[in-house]
Specification:
The chain is of the alpha/beta class. It is built from 12 helices and 5 strands.
Length: about 230
Amino acid sequence: MPEMTTTSRTETSTIRILLADDHALVRRGVRLILDQEPDLEVVAEAGDGAEAIELARTHDVDLAVLDIAMPRLTGLQAARELATLKPSLRILMLTMHDNEQYFFQALKAGASGYVLKSVADRDLVAACRAAMRDEPFLYPGAVTALIRNYLDRARHGEETPDQILTPREEEVLKLVAEGHSSKEIADLLFISIKTVQRHRANLLQKLGLRDRLELTRYAIRAGLIEP
């Protein structure tokens, strides 16, 4: 099944990582954290966002770990370019800033997660593996920000999922966000795989989203699943 490919790959193969930070000492420290893991390998290093894009063109990489604040192109700008250039590439933002604005910009840029440098030794490895499973990685402060954002939107009368999605679409969204394959969803809801795929396509179109990762972010923000 296509949806199982990424998960099984990360369990058996090395995740090839592009690391971008304008501070050589930071890159060295982050590389030490990553290269200690048998399933993670830094195969390319960049000193700014523009170099990261060039290296992504010339190297076979699965995951980009980008500092937010870099010269020439920032990590956020590079993330947007990389998401277009290589849609299958997973992206993590690495930053000093516990900042809601940066966090939401990172999600909009296509990042799978947002890791604080101050706790990179604790969080980064888990974030890399989560990204390769198509799962968003959220640190505790980010979860709080998502909840607050959702509540603010609800207070201002913006449409919430139960207003714009049918009950069946909401069921499918929840199961997709929890990582179930189309076949598993079909079995759980007693519908055909083709019907599941149609619901997924309708969800993406209705919500203006691109893929399962964005559906998961939406479901978390909407309170349909726990992060």
